[in-house]
Automatic annotation (TrEMBL):
Keywords: 2Fe-2S, 4Fe-4S, Iron, Iron-sulfur, Metal-binding, NAD, Quinone, Translocase. It holds the Pfam family Fer4_NDSU1. This is NADH-quinone oxidoreductase. It catalyses: a quinone + NADH + 5 H(+)(in) = a quinol + NAD(+) + 4 H(+)(out). The gene is nuoG. It comes from Acidiphilium iwatense. Belongs to the complex I 75 kDa subunit family. InterPro entries: 2Fe-2S_ferredoxin-like_sf, 2Fe-2S_ferredoxin-type, Mopterin_OxRdtase, Mopterin_OxRdtase_4Fe-4S_dom, NADH_UbQ_OxRdtase_75kDa_su_CS, NADH_UbQ_OxRdtase_ferredoxin, NADH_UbQ_OxRdtase_Gsu, NADH_UbQ_OxRdtase_Gsu_4Fe4S-bd.
Length: 685
């Protein structure tokens, strides 16, 4: 530790801290443009100048390491004058177009100019102009505003692992460019908008939509993947206009995936805003009473064993709890949440959880991926894996599955089940490397578990984890990577066929009545034509097209709800806007229908329902709390590890940009697919 004095405040900071970090530890705010806590130090904006005793001139605090006994002054007249001069240089070429800039009101340059800018300029030369660059349908550029802080370059190269931006020329002629004019290929490209300190990079879909002071800001949780990214939902009136990340170092740090950020325009398209009943083969508008009466009439007299329910990938825990209680009240145990048919073992939480935890990735030194592509399935989590690979030179990775650019090096061990079988041999070279590692981890993807030999793959991966020392009292390296935000919560509350029929059995003539709670990722063609289908959801997607009765529900931005992320962290979200038309929160729909059925659910408000959740599983009583599970040995997941088929592993989904009803309704996501398809067509030609 080093003792330093910052503005007469003596503090101790770790060796290796910079002067800027020491000043912030002492509670002093240092202006900066190029410095960012999660990027490498560039030291090129010079705005963070401070005065250090025994040094002849002000120093850039972001790149100056502290020394024991150092005396730092952050607010002397000399420092203020130096910062004013830097600001004057920055504004020589800046267009000063704040009134028509989307960054106005949340611009670092604007804020600092208030403190260090002059009311006039001593430079009369014409301002330089820079051609705007095309970065795709997500990021808008006005490069004349750029101050060459290089944050965007460093983010794409260091965090996203896709170094597609760089600088050309020198001095006044320097430009930030993508060299070849095409869309950015990173699934995290929208984060360069957040970290840009000026208005050079802004959101193209959000351009000229609203000012920050017009927006109501609501804390939420992203549900378009299973990481549980903390988000802020910005709305005006009854419309969601923007989604931004919130800082949570344990989950997403401060990053957000592009689909989660930009698919929000799908929230106002193809919406279900009133009940519908199919009459004479056509869906016709109906009242809530008519819809409930039609469902109750169809359920009347049915054998409970012929009634089933399927929960979709975006469902909140409250709605699944209400649907489960409704089904149990009528005597049905035909419940399933695995739309993809994944054969997970839910008997113990460690069999279906990301046990290492997201923060635990920072401790791993080896990785084996089986049947997963983290870059596509969980971009924010993949960025953390990349950071571990960058920071720890001993870290190594291997993958069984289709080849892909994961943004970090890995040994490709094969593409099929036969390759996975070879890893059961303790003498396999890669297995020997895992055994030698101190904290190895394994990530098992959903596409592998959705195969007919899914139980065998699960058992094989568990056996590999045991063989290589991934399972111990202080480290649990076995991880399942979910794609559905609802999957962990559904398992935790028991929305599974315990004593009932699973999704395959329900499809194979096992039900006469099927309740789809936001379930749109199933093959609707497998549902018997005689089966009566109730679809409860928020978009007119696949489930609504097959339904006999449609009950309009609320999207994740339109209701308070609880979600459990891949590591088992229980997180709650707030309502940002109200659902459209006659749509209602899903659990209230189920509560109202239960009364029509004569079996009212035992809760009338959200607090009572959440008490019911805590009764179902104590984890719901501890929101935002995560505990690592220590492996105690003994029980293993069901399955015969020797029964793995030779078939090749398939990707989890066809395209990253459209995997759910919201993103499929999004015009912006459609543009992204067109952009990614264009280079593929050109290569084919």
């Amino acid at each position: 530790m080093a003792k330093v004095t910052v503005d007469d405040i003596e503090i101790e900071v770790p060796n290796g801290f910079t002067v800027l970090q020491a000043a912030e530890a002492a509670g002093k705010e240092i202006p900066r443009f190029c410095y960012h806590e999660r990027l490498s130090i560039a030291g090129n904006c010079r705005m963070c100048l401070v005065e250090v005793e025994k040094m002849p001139k002000p120093v850039a605090s972001c790149g100056q390491p502290v020394g024991d006994g150092m005396v730092i002054h952050t607010d002397t007249e000399k420092v203020r004058q130096a910062r004013r001069s830097v600001m004057e240089f920055l504004l020589i070429n800046h267009p000063l177009d704040c009134p028509i800039c989307d960054q106005g009101g949340e611009c670092d340059l604007q804020d600092e100019a208030m403190g260090y800018g002059r009311d006039h300029s001593r430079y009369h030369e014409a301002k330089r102009a820079v051609a705007d660059k095309y970065l795709g349908p997500l990021v808008k550029t006005v490069m004349t505003r750029c101050i060459q802080c290089t944050r965007c370059i460093r983010f794409l190269a260091e965090v996203a692992g896709v170094p597609e931006l760089g600088a050309t020329s020198r001095g006044e002629a320097m430009e930030i460019t993508n060299y070849v004019e095409r869309a950015l290929s990173s699934e995290l490209s929208g984060n360069i908008i957040d970290i840009c300190p000026v208005g050079a990079l802004t959101s193209k879909p959000y351009a000229f939509v609203a000012r920050t002071w017009e927006l109501r800001k609501t804390d939420g949780i992203d549900v378009l993947d299973a990481v549980g990214t903390n988000i802020r939902i910005d709305s005006r009136g009854g419309e969601v206009l923007r989604i931004l990340p919130r800082i949570n170092d344990a989950v997403n740090e401060e990053w957000l995936a592009d689909k989660s950020r930009f698919a929000l325009d799908g929230l106002k398209r193809r919406r279900l805003d009133r009940p519908w009943i199919r009459r004479d083969g056509k869906l016709r508008e109906a009242s809530w009473d008519e819809a409930f009466a039609a469902i109750a009439a169809r359920m009347s007299g049915l054998d409970p064993a012929r009634i089933g329910a399927i929960a979709g990938d975006l469902c909140d825990v409250e709605s699944m709890m209400a649907l489960k209680d409704l089904m149990v009240s009528i005597g049905s145990r035909n419940l399933d949440c695995r739309q993809d048919g994944a054969t997970l073992d839910w008997s113990r939480r460690e069999f279906y959880r990301f046990n290492t935890t997201i923060e635990g990735i920072d401790e791993a030194d080896a990785l084996l991926i089986v049947g997963a592509n983290p870059r596509r399935e969980a971009p924010v989590l993949n960025a953390r894996l990349r950071r571990r690979w960058v920071e720890n030179t001993k870290f190594f990775a291997g993958m069984v599955g289709p080849t892909a650019d994961l943004t970090y090096d890995y040994a490709h061990l094969g593409t099929d089940g036969a390759a996975l079988r070879t890893l059961l041999d303790p003498e396999h070279p890669f297995i020997k490397r895992l055994v030698a590692a101190e904290r190895p981890m394994l990530i098992l993807g959903q596409s592998a578990l959705a195969r007919p030999d899914g139980p065998a793959i699960l058992a094989a991966c568990w056996k590999i984890a045991e063989t290589t020392g991934m399972l111990s009292a202080d480290w649990h390296g076995f991880n399942v990577l979910h794609n559905a935000a609802a999957r962990m919560g559904a398992f935790d509350l028991g929305f599974v066929p315990e004593g009932g029929k699973d999704i395959a059995a329900m499809f194979d003539g096992g039900t006469d009545f099927l309740w789809l709670l936001g379930a749109d990722e199933i093959d609707m063609g497998r549902i018997s034509a005689e089966t009566f289908v109730v679809y409860q959801g928020h978009h007119g997607d696949r489930g609504a097209a097959r339904a006999d009765v449609i009950l309009p529900g609320a999207a994740y931005t339109e209701k308070p709800g609880t979600y459990v992320n891949i590591e088992g962290r229980v997180q709650t979200t707030l309502r940002a806007v109200f659902p459209p038309g006659q749509a209602r929160e899903d659990w209230t729909i189920l509560r109202a229908f239960s009364a029509v059925l004569g079996k009212p659910l035992p809760y009338n408000d959200l607090e009572a329902l959440r008490r019911r959740l805590a009764e179902a599983n104590p984890v719901f009583a501890e929101p935002d709390t995560i505990r690592r599970i220590a492996h105690t040995g003994g029980v293993k997941p069901a399955g015969d590890s020797s029964a793995i088929a030779d078939a090749a592993f398939a990707p989890a989904f066809e395209t990253y940009y459209q995997t759910d009803p919201i993103s499929r309704a999004s015009p912006t996501m459609t543009k992204c697919i067109a952009e990614t398809a264009a280079p593929m067509r050109q290569a084919a030609e």
